[in-house]
């Protein structure tokens, strides 16, 4: 199997050292912004994923906060990437920092000199070489401190980016780092456990309700359902149109995408309970969609939600007009598909709601077969405590556990091993259990 | 056969989880008869704290049902890797769900993946790998202990998972993962006393298009040596972490609220009214509380993950 190549319309992960970013490669004119650098993505087309590109300065514009640089990208080989330390051949270093004082004069080059260097030199190692040459204290620093200095400078002037294919692992890192709220604060360990506890795999029919995770949860579940399998997913959401960024970014085969049925919670439950009747009454297609919007809007209490719905509200209306004359609308077909799966019942339920979970659980739990996992995610413990008690009282769910996690990363280096200085303090909470007959 | 896919009714030969309480559950095989130590075939009767269960009676019962025991009742659940991990016969130390979930996520295991695992141990992690990669992927699992490898192979067969797993009895630190697997794996997982010795073999087993690597070690020194070896061979994105799960114990607590204000007043002579008052003021408040258990896991192991980038020559 050959490595897939970068195509127009793909979502791509741009990586510059440890920084990663998800970007849509929509057209040849698409540019991506990494801090003060703007990258022209044109030259990525048809190159294999995993390739490394060199950022070549095309023009520099003065910006609000220093110069904004526009770069073209040139494919380069891995061998061009070498450790700066080796490249500079640094040999002497100090034993400790007793002779170093912070007087702001250590660097002889002025900021303007450095800006000029950036334009003249096409290579971070050359800039760093000059910086080291002009640093009065560099050789007095300890070896560790030198390395740190070089790493810091390298980070700033590093001129290579790698283009990677989005995966769930890369995306959860990006989303969580950029704005954890947008994925409801679902941290990597919690996401991994949602997948485990829900038992989602290539066999079975799964039910998810989520109120906005940029498509991360449905994407992660559909990813675990896999290509060329028989598993299906009904993805319920509170808005008019589901958030699907992460799902689209995975670029899954069509047959797999079609096994994820995304439906509005209200309208699919209506279809489920009253489906037969509305069919007979044969209402004009535009009317129910209006009912839907009216119905969905007032029920969205949090402030973030209208935002997530807004950009997409126009789209389905367009669809309405196009398909109006031809027969059932796409969302109606999806609702029918979902309702059929609901009647057949599900092999697990995952809930990640911004709304109060009680009523949603009450509506969705009866759709789950007995002896199947239930996973409820919550950002705060108190809500899930109550849910725990409520579920316990019904006697319909057993093996209830309310858990959270510590996730600690480590720096492991010879003689310098310790936990990272910062750690994330909030994993969110999971309430898990198994349904009973 | 109950591990292959979700099913609704217990069939003969299924492994069934007999769920008594959060702290008490058992994995039993749904067969009407078993052979005892004397070699005689006898009816399968399973003993629990709540009395005995005639196992024959649960065959054909719907999963999730309540079944009667001679002195109480229990529920029968279809096994999942999570429940199996809590009930399986321990042949070695095992890894639990929080670490395993992170391993599966970081190794990007999904249907179709080819995964190499060493050692097999009690097969706790193997069951998760198999759930994640079936029906189109393959697990190659290695153990240097012959009896353990045989037991695991037999267990996978009984669980209906044979089609997706190959169990090897082999010392991978010295002998590697066999030439047949060179360049075949999407992911390699090591849980070995000396993972650094197996890293070069992992490097060989991973696909030329790259792949993911994980090593689980209880001790930091093992991770350290492993990382040195990984760096030498050109692995990148090397990250080490620890995942610890905390359970919340949820209870409703009722607290008496005591009144101390009346002490400021001199004792009144009218004794009976006073006692009435004090009774009325015996207020209680109810809280739904959660606390961490007295003892909880403080360390399981260090998880070291790395990526083998594409197109690194393996000559």
List key phrases describing it.
heterodimer, A: about 425 residues, alpha/beta, Rossmann fold, eight-stranded mixed sheet, 16 helices, elongated, B: alpha/beta, Vcp-like ATPase, Chain A, domain 2, nucleus (chain B), transferase (chain B)
Describe this structure in words.
- The complex is a heterodimer of chains A (437) and B (315).
- Chain A is an alpha/beta fold and 437 residues long.
- Chain A has two domains: 11-163, no CATH class; 168-435, Rossmann fold (3-Layer(aba) Sandwich).
- Chain A contains 16 helices and 15 strands.
- In chain A, helix 3 crosses helix 4.
- The longest helix of chain A is centred in the middle third of the chain and has 17 residues, at 265-281.
- Chain B is α/β, with parallel strands linked by helices.
- Chain B has helices at residues 81-87, 97-106, 124-133, 146-158, 172-175, 195-205, 220-232, 271-280; strands spanning 15-21, 24-29, 33-35, 41-43, 45-48, 51-54, 66-69, 72-77, 114-118, 138-143, 165-169, 187-190, 211-217, 236-257, 283-291, 302-308.
- Chain B is flat, with a radius of gyration of 27 Å.
- Chain B starts with 14 loop residues before the first strand and ends in a 7-residue tail after the last strand.
- The relative contact order of chain B is 0.11.
- The mean pLDDT of chain B is 93.
- At the A-B interface, helix 6, helix 7, helix 16, strand 13 and strand 15 of A face strand 8, helix 2, helix 3, helix 7 and strand 14 of B.
- Chain A: InterPro entries: SAM-dependent_MTases_sf, TRM6.
């Amino acid at each position: 199997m050959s490595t897939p190549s970068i195509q127009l319309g793909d979502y791509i992960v741009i990586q510059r050292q440890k920084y990663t970013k998800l970007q849509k490669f929509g057209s040849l004119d698409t540019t991506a912004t990494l801090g003060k650098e703007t990258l022209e993505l044109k030259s990525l087309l048809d190159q294999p994923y995993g390739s490394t590109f060199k950022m070549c300065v095309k023009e520099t514009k003065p910006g609000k906060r220093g110069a904004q640089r526009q770069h073209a990208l040139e494919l380069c080989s891995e061998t061009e990437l070498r450790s700066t330390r080796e490249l500079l051949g640094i040999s002497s270093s100090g034993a400790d920092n007793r002779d170093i004082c912070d007087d702001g004069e250590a660097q002889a080059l002025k900021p303007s000199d450095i800006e000029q260097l950036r334009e003249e030199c096409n290579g971070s190692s050359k800039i760093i070489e000059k910086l080291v040459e002009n640093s009065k204290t560099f050789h007095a620093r300890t070896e560790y401190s030198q390395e740190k200095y070089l790493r810091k400078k390298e980070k700033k002037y590093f001129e290579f980016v790698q283009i990677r294919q989005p995966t769930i692992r890369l995306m959860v890192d990006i989303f969580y780092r950029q704005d954890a709220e947008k994925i409801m604060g679902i941290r990597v360990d919690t996401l991994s456990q949602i997948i485990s506890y829900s038992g989602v795999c290539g066999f079975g029919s799964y039910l998810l309700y989520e109120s906005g995770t940029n498509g991360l949860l449905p994407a992660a579940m559909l990813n675990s359902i896999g290509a060329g399998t028989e598993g299906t997913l009904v993805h319920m959401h509170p808005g008019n149109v589901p958030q699907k960024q992460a799902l689209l970014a995975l670029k899954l085969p069509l047959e797999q995408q079609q096994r994820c049925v995304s439906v509005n919670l209200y309208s699919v439950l209506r279809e489920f309970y009253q489906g037969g009747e509305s069919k007979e009454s044969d209402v004009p297609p535009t009317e129910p969609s209006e009912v839907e919007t009216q119905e969905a809007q007032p029920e969205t209490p949090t402030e973030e939600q209208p935002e997530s719905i807004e950009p997409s509200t126009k789209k389905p209306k367009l669809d309405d007009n196009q398909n109006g004359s031809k027969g059932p609308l796409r969302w109606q077909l999806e609702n029918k598909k979902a309702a059929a799966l609901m009647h057949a019942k599900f092999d697990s339920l995952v809930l990640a709601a911004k709304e109060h979970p009680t009523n949603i659980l009450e509506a969705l739990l009866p759709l789950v077969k007995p002896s199947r996992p239930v996973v409820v995610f919550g950002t705060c413990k108190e809500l899930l405590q109550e849910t725990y008690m409520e579920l316990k009282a019904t006697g319909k769910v057993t093996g209830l556990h309310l858990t959270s996690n510590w996730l600690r990363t480590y720096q492991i280096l010879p003689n310098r091993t310790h936990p990272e200085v910062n750690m994330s303090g909030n994993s969110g909470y999971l309430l898990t259990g198994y349904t009973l007959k | 056969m109950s591990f292959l896919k979700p099913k609704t009714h217990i069939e003969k030969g299924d492994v069934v989880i007999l769920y008594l309480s959060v702290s008490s559950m058992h994995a039993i095989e749904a067969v009407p008869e078993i052979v005892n130590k004397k070699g005689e075939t006898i009816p399968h009767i399973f003993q629990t704290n709540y009395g005995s269960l005639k196992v024959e009676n649960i065959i054909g019962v719907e999963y999730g049902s309540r079944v009667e025991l001679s002195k109480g009742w229990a529920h029968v659940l279809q096994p999942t890797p999570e429940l199996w991990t809590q009930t399986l016969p321990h042949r070695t130390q095992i890894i639990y769900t929080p670490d395993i979930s992170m391993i599966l996520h970081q190794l990007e295991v999904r249907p179709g993946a080819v995964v190499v695992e060493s050692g097999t141990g009690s097969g706790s992690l193997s069951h998760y790998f198999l759930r994640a990669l079936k029906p189109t992927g393959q697990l190659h699992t290695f153990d240097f202990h012959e009896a353990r490898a045989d037991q695991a192979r037999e267990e996978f067969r009984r669980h209906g998972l044979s089609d997706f797993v190959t169990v090897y009895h082999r010392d991978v630190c010295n002998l590697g993962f066999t030439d047949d697997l060179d360049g075949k794996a999407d992911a390699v997982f090591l849980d070995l006393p000396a993972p650094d010795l197996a890293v070069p073999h992992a490097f060989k087993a991973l696909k030329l298009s790259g792949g993911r690597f994980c090593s689980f070690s209880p001790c930091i020194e093992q991770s350290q040596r492993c990382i040195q070896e990984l760096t030498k061979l050109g692995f990148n994105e090397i990250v080490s972490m620890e995942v610890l799960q905390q359970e919340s114990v949820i209870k409703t607590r009722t607290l008496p609220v005591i009144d101390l204000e009346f002490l400021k007043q001199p004792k009144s002579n009218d004794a009976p009214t006073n006692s009435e008052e004090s009774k009325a003021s015996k207020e209680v408040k109810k809280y739904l509380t959660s606390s961490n258990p007295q003892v909880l896991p403080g360390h399981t192991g260090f998880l070291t993950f790395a990526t083998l980038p594409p197109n690194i020559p393996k000559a």
